[in-house]
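Q: How would the structure tokens look for this protein?
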Amino acid sequence: MYNFDSENADQEAPRWSAGPTRFPEQAREQDVLVPALPGAAPFAACLQLFRLYPLAVTRHSADGGSRSMVLVNRAAGPAGFFVLTQVHGDLFAIRAWNGHSRVSEEIRAERSVSRMAHQAVTGSMPVPRDGALLGWVTDSQVTALLSVHFKQPGTWDGPLPIPEIQVMPRSGNSDLLDWPPFTASPLGDERLWEYVERGSLVDVAPLVTQCPGHAFWVPFPVRRGARCEKGGIVITDNLPGNEYWLPAGVYLDHWVLREGIEAPPAGRLLALPGSVDLACGLR
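A: Here is the predicted structure in token form.
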């Protein structure tokens, strides 16, 4: 979990620690009474989250309107996903991912907050934004692509699938040493942003958008009953970058590769209905 030190707000980012948070049971009614805590520390933590994790930020308008990010608190179990919104400079709002829990609260520097909101902000990890395309780098070469997908709940109506990161190693590369160590559960690895900081996990969207017509999301038909029925990504040519390069090939969900399913030729996948040029979708 992140332990945020408000006294060092300008020098130090939220960090993960080994001990679990004793997270209160998720409130089911809006009028549940919880202890109030000073709002300065969680407000400072909100500012830090949006400043230090731009890859997690979704902007809701191009003219500088509100922006948001999704947080995950591993200590809270299945109910540990939250949406943190910066309404404007001095006002944040946090709510539970599942609208049925009715957890929603404003965060201001001068106002007290509930213990639940305090722990949700200071003890949670940001999730890369919806639509982000990341790459796992080994010896300056991208050996796996990671696609982030989720739909933020817009109302309090029924629950939505929780955020997910699909890990897709390159087909034909069976060396598990080239796969991310968190392949089976990216959001369960507390070191996710440490990998970003040291350059092992990179944002490949700029590389893809600079080379339209070379990266495609494709449907991938698998046998009935297979564990994964998601699509894959086809890179038609090597894409060189300044510090890493993305090899041409077919990138498939790791569960497909674990089951020994061979990828059809890239040309056959690109001919299937539903192929999408990622350069257009990532802009």
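The mean pLDDT is 81.

The longest strand covers residues 141-149.

Upvote if useful.
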